[in-house]
Design goal:
The protein is α/β, with parallel strands linked by helices. The protein has twelve helices and 17 strands. It has helices at residues 2-5, 29-32, 109-115, 126-133, 159-175, 191-199, 212-215, 242-257, 282-290, 304-312, 350-358, 383-393, and strands at residues 6-8, 35-37, 51-55, 60-66, 69-74, 79-89, 94-96, 102-105, 141-151, 183-186, 207-209, 219-228, 266-269, 295-297, 316-320, 336-341, 361-366. Strand 6 (79-89) and strand 7 form a beta hairpin. Helix 5 (159-175) packs parallel to helix 6, helix 5 (159-175) packs across helix 8 and helix 8 packs across helix 10.
């Protein structure tokens, strides 16, 4: 599907690239060491340079079509850094090379600016910010991993970002055939994280789990670190292999379980127990949709495989904006997805993008600013409009 959607941009970029400019690389690589820009990704495993980089393919663009009309996205620029004698500190991970310099971190730009006490774009305070993150270096090494280690960065702790940011990194390493001879470094794995790695074929004996509490006291050192750049989908930028993550997982889960298990076909993704972006009259909407045959599903109560199979067999999916909607990527092409957006979230097009990548039939309702209540709570002012739209879709 994606091969038909993506057209390569004109080949005007040089074959040998300069040091990475992605936001996660917060200090110039030239300050760290002489840079060897490699053409073959396998060189990342063998280069003697203290700091080597590789760019994965030229940037691609795509015009995706959905029920709201076409929109254009571009793939994220991707770099992989190979750092010799690296140290990884703090739960969000700061990568340090020779001399204790910060080479990269996995903190998203929005979080970094907020923690640094600056408005978006305020880079001036990053040095002190990284010093505060890297204090754990004073505690010494809590673990050393021999050989090459790939960092499974976790800039966000929820289900959706695990799939978007972390599993896309795993798949990138698999695409480049860099995964078979490396270990993986990650924070402690929840059940769905462990199972998703197993389904993707990761050898779990090569996965090293280190808690944030440990890293608060020290750092993990390794002979060589592979550090993929931040890969998640944000505001019209999407790594074009993202769909392959979900396709591989779905294919392997279906092979193991088949299609004999029965799940509800019309799904309402429940957020009534979620304190974040809480909809105060969601129960009323749920009661109305129950009369149309919708079953309320709480993905957190399911096993990982059950969650994949549930969405794979769905005929219609409705829910308020939240992590569970990332599972639209497991649904069949053409499946309707109705997203109800809280006030002030008009720019958040994550699920529109994933729906378009999957060929799903996307609809959205953005709640007006007047629907906002105190804090992060809000109401649906016109439930009838949403119910009537869903009736038209069915």
């Amino acid at each position: 599907m994606l091969n038909e959607l993506f057209d390569p941009l004109p080949a005007e970029q040089p074959a040998v690239l300069e040091a990475p400019a992605s936001p996660i690389f917060v200090s110039g690589a030239e300050q760290e060491a002489s840079v060897t820009n490699v053409r073959n990704p396998q060189d990342l495993l063998e280069s003697e340079s203290p700091f080597s980089t590789f760019k994965y393919l030229p940037q691609y663009k795509a015009t995706l079509k959905d029920s709201g009309g076409s929109f254009e996205v571009r793939s994220s620029e991707v770099f992989i850094a190979a750092i010799r004698n690296a140290k990884v500190a703090t739960q969000r991970s700061v990568v340090l090379g020779r001399g204790g310099r910060v080479v990269a971190d996995t903190v998203s730009p929005n979080v970094r600016y907020r923690l640094a006490g600056r408005r978006r774009g305020g880079e001036a305070d990053l040095q002190s910010f990284h010093q505060s993150l890297g204090k754990s270096l004073d505690g010494g090494s809590v673990k050393h991993i021999d050989g090459t280690v790939a960092l499974l960065a976790q800039p966000n702790n929820n289900y959706a970002h695990w799939h978007m940011d972390v599993l896309s990194s795993v798949t990138l390493l698999q695409e480049l055939k860099l995964d078979s001879n490396v270990s993986f470094l990650t924070s402690p794995l929840k059940q769905y994280r462990r199972r998703s790695l197993e389904v993707l074929g990761v050898d779990m004996h090569r996965v090293h789990e280190v808690s944030g509490e440990q890293l608060a006291l020290g750092y993990v050192s390794c002979d060589r670190l592979l550090f993929p750049s931040f890969l998640g989908v944000y505001y019209g930028s999407v790594p074009f292999w993202e769909e392959r993550v979900f396709e591989r997982i779905l294919h392997r889960v279906l092979i193991q379980h088949g299609t004999s298990r029965q799940f509800p076909k019309r799904l309402y993704v429940d957020r009534t127990n979620d304190a974040k972006r809480k909809c105060l009259n969601e129960a009323e909407l749920i009661n109305r949709l129950a009369k149309l045959g919708f079953a309320v599903v709480d993905p957190s109560t399911l096993s990982y495989d059950e969650e994949v199979l549930l969405y794979a067999g769905a005929e219609c999916i409705v829910g308020c904006m939240g992590a569970g909607l990332v599972n639209i990527a497991f649904a069949r092409p053409g499946t309707p997805l109705v997203e109800i957006k809280p006030p002030a979230h008009h720019r958040t097009n994550l699920w529109r993008t994933y729906a378009a990548l999957r060929g799903a039939n996307y609809r959205s309702f953005l709640m007006p600013d007047s629907a906002a209540e105190s804090g992060d709570t809000w109401r649906i002012p016109d439930i009838n409009a949403i119910v009537n739209e869903i009736k038209n879709i069915l």
